[in-house]
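Q: what sequence does this backbone want?
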């Protein structure tokens, strides 16, 4: 395994390539991807129709001639119809949970797994993880890519792993006290849950040994980061990925924490207007589209992620030259259109954090009782603020509603609920319940 050990080397050469050198690498890899995709009947049919061959790819602009791939295409080819290799070459199969419909499965060859562990190691190193550290992994180990993906990334860095997996939160805290991990890996909402359970056990989460955390797998805001950092006394880094492309390891923050570096030597990124599919400029929000350049088992071409974020092509203070992506502000499929106004759950979260006394636990419910959409935001109130005085609670409700109106531009009903009454997650938190029935 030693050839994969990143050790204390801070940067891989591929992270600092000039744009010309990077594009040259990308074009070569794109050509290879098209060649591999010829083995997938779905792509082969499109390539034959459109006259696409590996040799017809000579510049990065040729990407524009390639088809988009969507979640629907994955479902149409369920379970592993987009594989480019015979079954015997698969080394592992992961999947997404299917919370928005049928699950999807993704195959990996041994080479894919080695590339993946290397990419996870890269972003962990970028955030400061070193071989001397011990990491508690509180992601589910299973079909979900978070657990195994990060596990082998940490191993590649050379740090020690406590594979706690998710759930059984009291035990997580006991493990932290007994085994003294320096770092935590989970979803941001689970970190909050861990802090809360620690307090209920009379353990001040700031006294836990954690100093570093890598959170990902779900949307979270900058305010949420500050809250977790203050509650747990650690530095939290954001990382992003999706199973269709590889899992975690698509992008992650460096010490500058000014956007997530996309591992562009392996993933070609585009940011497009979700309606017209035309590219948008740097700093403009659009839908991220990724092409996996080195996947053997499943060469994914122009996959529409539905994730809304913006790109930044400027080189970073850390020395990496790769493009950075902002936080994901939402998914185009959970963007709420409330009486004509587009709202992302992240905007509601942002508004809530601006009102003193609210807890970072909320649920957005959308209904259409007659013909108009109605949004109810259920918000937990901090125990010290929760009061049985009607007037105090009414004032707080009004303050929250006004803030939501200012930040998100919609009128929402606000329902204050008692501390610890909303469901806690040990993975991806559910923030929206839409009861309006099938969309459009
Ligand atoms: O969540 C992969 C992953 C695991 C990434 C652990 C990071 C850490 P899926 O289950 O396929 O894969 O879900 C992918 O989760 O399209 C985004 O909508 C969302 N997502 C992932 N990371 C972030 C993040 C994994 N840092 C979907 N911020 C993606 C916001 C994220 N959303």
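A:
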């Amino acid at each position: 395994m030693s050839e994969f050990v990143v050790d204390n080397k801070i940067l891989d050469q591929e992270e600092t390539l000039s744009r010309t050198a990077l594009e040259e690498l990308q074009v070569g890899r794109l050509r290879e991807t098209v060649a591999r995709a010829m083995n997938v009947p779905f792509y082969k049919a499109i390539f034959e129709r459109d006259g696409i061959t590996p040799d017809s790819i000579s510049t990065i602009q040729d990407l524009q001639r390639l088809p988009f791939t969507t979640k629907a295409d994955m479902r149409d080819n369920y379970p592993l119809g987009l594989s480019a290799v015979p079954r015997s070459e698969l080394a592992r199969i992961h999947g997404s949970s299917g919370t928005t419909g049928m699950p999807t499965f993704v195959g990996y060859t041994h080479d894919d797994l080695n590339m993946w562990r290397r990419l996870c190691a890269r972003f962990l190193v970028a955030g400061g993880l070193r071989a001397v550290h011990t990491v508690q992994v509180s992601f589910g180990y299973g079909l979900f890519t978070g657990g195994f993906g990060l596990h082998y990334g940490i191993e590649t860095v050379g740090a020690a792993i406590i594979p706690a997996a998710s759930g059984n939160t009291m035990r997580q805290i006991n493990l932290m006290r007994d085994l003294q991990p320096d770092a935590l890996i989970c979803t941001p909402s689970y970190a909050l849950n861990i802090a809360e359970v620690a307090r209920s056990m009379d353990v001040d989460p700031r006294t836990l040994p954690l100093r570093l955390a890598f959170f990902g797998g779900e949307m979270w805001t900058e305010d949420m980061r500050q809250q977790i950092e203050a509650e747990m006394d650690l530095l939290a880094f954001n990382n992003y990925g999706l199973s269709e492309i590889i899992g975690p390891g698509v992008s992650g923050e460096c010490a500058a924490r000014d956007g997530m570096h996309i591992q562009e030597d392996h993933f070609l990124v585009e940011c497009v207007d979700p309606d017209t599919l035309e590219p948008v400029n740097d700093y403009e929000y659009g839908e991220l589209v990724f092409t996996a350049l080195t996947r053997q088992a499943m060469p994914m071409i122009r996959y529409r992620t539905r994730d809304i974020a913006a790109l930044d092509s400027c080189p970073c203070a850390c020395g990496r030259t790769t493009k950075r992506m902002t936080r994901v502000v939402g998914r185009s499929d959970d963007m709420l259109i409330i009486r004509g106004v587009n709202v992302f759950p992240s905007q509601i979260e942002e508004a809530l954090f601006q009102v003193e006394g609210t807890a970072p636990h909320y649920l957005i419910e959308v209904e259409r009782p007659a013909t108009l959409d109605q949004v109810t935001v259920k918000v937990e109130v901090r125990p010290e603020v929760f009061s049985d005085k009607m007037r105090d609670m009414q004032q707080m409700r009004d303050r929250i509603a006004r803030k939501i109106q200012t930040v998100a531009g919609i009128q929402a009903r606000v329902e204050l609920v008692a501390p610890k009454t909303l469901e806690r997650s040990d993975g991806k938190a559910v923030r929206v319940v839409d009861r309006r029935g099938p969309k459009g």
